Amino acid sequence: METIPASEWERYNRGALDMIIHKVGKIDVLVEATRKLEEQHSRLELSITKMADAVTKLTVIEERQTQDRKEMAEMRSMLAEMARKHDSSTERVMTAVGRVEDRVDELEKAEPMNAQARRWMFGALGLLATIFIYALANMLGLRS
């Protein structure tokens, strides 16, 4: 085997060193890119966690809204029923008030006749009392 001259050997070593330095530079670039990817991956995981929390909160809100809508529909139904009953009650009250007004009108018309009948009744009672006292006085001999 033939020996390699020193100048050739030096040139070969320099080339190998340049190639190693070049490869190390590429490795440094790859390491930096990997570090950035890991950072982005961490941020992405954090973002996904936050989005999952937000979706959970939205789901809870939607469930509450659904329940609120059901309760509001029930309340609307109850209000409609109450309004219907109120209308029915109002009609009955107005009918009763109308009948009372009619009765009061009849009584007001009959009042003069009732006053006359009362006068006659009290007159008749006075006459009966007088007759009774007169008869009692005769029976007891108070009258001569």
Protein model, in words:
The chain has 144 residues and is mostly helical. Helix content is 94%, strand content 0%. The protein is built from one helix and no strands. The chain is rod-shaped, with a radius of gyration of 59 Å. The termini are far apart. 0% of the residues are buried.
Descriptive terms for the model:
144 residues, mainly alpha, 1 helix, 94% helix, 0% strand, rod-shaped
Task: Lay out the secondary structure.
Elements: H1 6-140
Mean pLDDT: 88
How does the helix and strand content classify structurally?
A: mainly alpha
**Beta content:** under 5%
Q: How many angstroms separate the termini?
A: 193 Å
Q: Which value, in Å, is the CA radius of gyration? A: 59 Å
Shape: rod-shaped
Number of strands: 0
Helix fraction bin: over 70%
Give the H and E element order. Answer: H
Biggest sheet architecture: none
Number of helices: 1
**Unreliably modeled segments:** none
Task: Give a quick rundown of the structure.
By secondary structure, the protein is an all-alpha fold. Helix content is 94%, strand content 0%.
